[in-house]
Design brief:
With 283 residues, the chain is an alpha/beta fold. The protein has 9 helices and 14 strands.
Length: 283
């Protein structure tokens, strides 16, 4: 098959590699759509401490099952539907150990032995991927493979909202109108936010944010604070840029919540006032 291979930071090629063979508990998926995530860019830049080179990137994907491992039974599919050859599936890319404290207490996303397609093992910017049957979710006919590739990033945004745990009527400031920022915007709007402001330096992204429900758009956090001098109940950074995170923190209202959602460089550091966190009861 053909695949994108990152041999080392900054060293990318498209080449032929052997087709994967599904293990007994796996299915072979022909990739129909795969997103390109900020994590993929971090891996290309050598800025992901989790990446194992050489690596085929790509963890946001969906496709069609073309072969079953020897032990796979049709009734073992997820999503309330049997999975068989010809099934269209979305893939959960994280591979948890199931044995560490976090896995045993229902926090698999914090697994101490983290692995994932496209990060530690071959991903989906390729023609085929062999995946555990437990990670494959059958799709309804109403969802295209291209749409299904967005299920993984949408689930990340939903989890971020669960962590933030906003209240109905809260005001929001979301910094960064990329894919994740725009997904978070839509969740905030549908979750009962009274106002959702969006900050970005890209005018086209801001225009799209407005179409998706942003009540105000800004090119600078300071501009947002002119309209909300007390700050916002919920502030989300979706940039992962250290100076931007520091500025976004200043926009949190007393008693408010601050979610760092954007993936920063593992070498990045930020300076926040512990006194303000304590005194203003910021969580």
């Amino acid at each position: 098959m053909r695949a994108v291979i990152i041999d080392a930071p900054g060293n990318i090629r498209v080449d032929s590699v052997p087709d994967p063979t599904p293990r007994p508990n796996e299915v072979l998926v022909r990739v129909g759509a795969c997103g390109i995530c900020g994590t993929d860019l971090h891996i290309i830049d050598g800025d992901s401490p989790l990446a194992r080179y050489p690596i085929i990137p790509g963890h946001e994907f969906a496709g069609e099952v073309v072969a079953l491992g020897s032990d796979v039974a049709q009734e073992n599919g997820n999503g309330g539907a049997s999975i068989m050859v010809g099934s269209r599936v979305a893939i959960e890319p994280n591979l948890y150990c199931g044995h560490c404290e976090f896995c045993r207490t229902g926090h698999e996303n914090l697994c101490l032995n983290y692995a994932a397609f496209g990060v530690t093992t071959g991903g989906a910017i390729a023609q085929y991927v062999a995946v555990p049957i437990a990670k494959a979710y059958a799709l309804p006919d109403t969802i295209s493979l291209r749409e299904a590739a967005l299920i993984e990033p949408v689930s990340c945004a939903v989890h971020g909202m669960h962590v933030l745990n906003p209240r109905s009527g809260d005001t929001f400031l979301i910094v960064g109108a990329g894919t994740m920022g725009l997904l978070l915007l839509q969740l905030a709007v549908r979750g009962g936010a009274s106002r959702v402001a969006m900050v970005d330096v890209n005018a086209q992204r801001l225009a799209l944010a407005e179409q998706l429900g942003a009540t105000r758009i800004y090119s600078d956090i300071k501009q947002a604070l002119q309209d909300e001098p007390l700050g916002f109940n919920c502030v989300i950074d979706a940039t992962g840029i250290a100076p931007v995170i520091e500025n976004a923190f200043m926009a949190v209202k007393r008693g408010g919540k601050f979610l760092i959602f954007g993936v920063a460089s593992h070498e990045a550091h930020i300076s926040l006032s512990p006194f303000r966190i304590y005194n203003d009861e910021i969580t």
